[in-house]
Design brief:
The protein contains no helices and eleven strands. The chain has strands at 9-13, 19-23, 29-33, 45-50, 56-61, 64-69, 74-80, 86-91, 97-102, 107-111, 116-121. β4 (45-50) and β5 form a beta hairpin.
Length: 136
């Protein structure tokens, strides 16, 4: 995904359980982000999106959402977001709002400032495979 504020910055995720930030112009890896070792082993990162401020990155892995500082590559906060694997995430363009989808069949709207769930969207009979937010 391209950063909405820096067209020279992209983020990738992988089943190798890492997130990498890259310079488009040079191809140089700027940061390799990795969670602390979990006693149950590493978990593949399933989605990535830039926060509206351009200074933070949101990733999902297993049932968790993590907020990272882009400049320093530091983990800011991780929280349990769903009862099953989080499959996708989308960040609003203008607000600190995050939408996540999960194999538990729900989508959730999060306030990134407080880390609180604003609303749970239920009604799918299967896993939520992708989410998107309208730019308006």
């Amino acid at each position: 995904k391209f950063s909405p504020y820096d067209s020279n910055l992209v983020a990738t995720t992988s089943a190798d359980c890492t997130i990498k930030l890259w310079s488009v112009s040079t191809g140089e890896r700027l940061h390799k982000l990795l969670h602390d070792v979990d006693p149950y082993g590493p978990h593949p990162v399933t989605s990535v999106c830039f926060a509206a401020n351009g200074q933070e990155l949101v990733t999902t892995s297993d049932m968790f959402v993590t907020l990272w500082n882009v400049q320093h590559g530091q983990e800011l906060r991780t929280w349990e977001a769903h009862t099953s694997q989080v499959t996708s995430a989308a960040h609003s363009v203008e607000e600190a709002v995050l939408l996540t989808g999960s194999k538990d069949g729900t989508a959730k709207i999060w306030d990134l400032q407080s880390g609180l769930c604003r609303r749970t969207l239920q009604g799918h009979e299967g896993p939520v495979s992708a989410v998107a937010l309208s730019p308006e």
